[in-house]
Amino acid sequence: MESQKKYPRTYSFEFFPPNTPEGQEKLRATTRQLAQLNPKFFSVTYGAGGSTRERTLGTVLDIRAMGHAAAPHISCVASTRENIREWLQRYKDNGIQHLVALRGDLPSGLAAAGEFRYANELVEFIRQEFGTQFMIEVAAYPETHPQAKNAQEDLAAFKRKVDAGANSAITQYFYNADAYYRFVDDCEAMGINIPIVPGIMPIGRFSQLARFSDACGAEIPRWMRRKLEGYGDDTASIRAFGLDVVTALCDDLLQHGAPGLHFYSLNQAGLTTTIWQRLGL
Ligand code: FAD
Description:
Strand order of the largest sheet: 1-2-3-4-5-6-7-8
Number of strands: 8
CATH class: Alpha Beta
Number of helices: 10
Low-confidence stretches: none
CATH architecture: Alpha-Beta Barrel
Bound molecules: flavin-adenine dinucleotide
Order of helices and strands: EHEHEHEHEHEHEHHHEH
């Protein structure tokens, strides 16, 4: 973890683009609430294959109009070079200087993989076409990406993104801090020299968390799963337990030198704010 201690701590909150006017209004209220915590930026996800790209950009511009920094995500799966170039140009024309660059996942039923296979090719393309115009964040997987052949190959894939020009990384969420510490130490041993900010998923509903975790390969440790299952429909107990566990995780990460935290806020302010206050940030 030594190499991570030299970076200033960066706090950020992730949203998805709402698809109704009511959702938009609600997100503005969430933004106002979370902005009081003074994050470095908000980030806004990008639906696979570009399905939300107008709304992603619209949400980023909305957050900026409220006076806060915002970074759109962009994913390259099922896209052509021309599509991506055009879209990056739109970002640039709108004064955007900070991106989260991803491969994305192919939507079910969509056969064409597009002209980019992996995120390192996207990072390389952005650097080729736009130089240092954008600060680029990429994804990292302390518990290994579910499609990776093994952990070593996944690390090598992460290094290719860094070598292609990524400035910083945000991890998939995890509840096992040791996986993150080991991952960071392995990165350090490979000469990877960028901040690797832990992604934090607050726990609100167990069924939703279990679904997300199965899809993205994040492990819910057995002791946590058993506890959460035992609460059944008792959402108050799930939230109380989740707040204790996630606050303790964040505290441990920061004490070990993590360069900040990125909260998967899911367009809600409550859990993130409570964790923040309990951490005394
Ligand atoms: P990559 O880094 O390309 O890795 C994908 C897989 O390919 C890994 O298993 C890797 O080991 C393997 N791989 C890489 N290179 C090679 C190679 N040369 N040969 C063989 N295998 C290789 N998804 C969205 O659709 N929209 C979003 O907005 C979004 N935001 C995210 C934000 C964060 C912080 C994170 C952690 C994830 C996000 N995702 C998002 C999910 C992400 O798109 C998926 O996890 C996706 O499956 C992988 O994207 P990646 O950029 O990590 O891909």
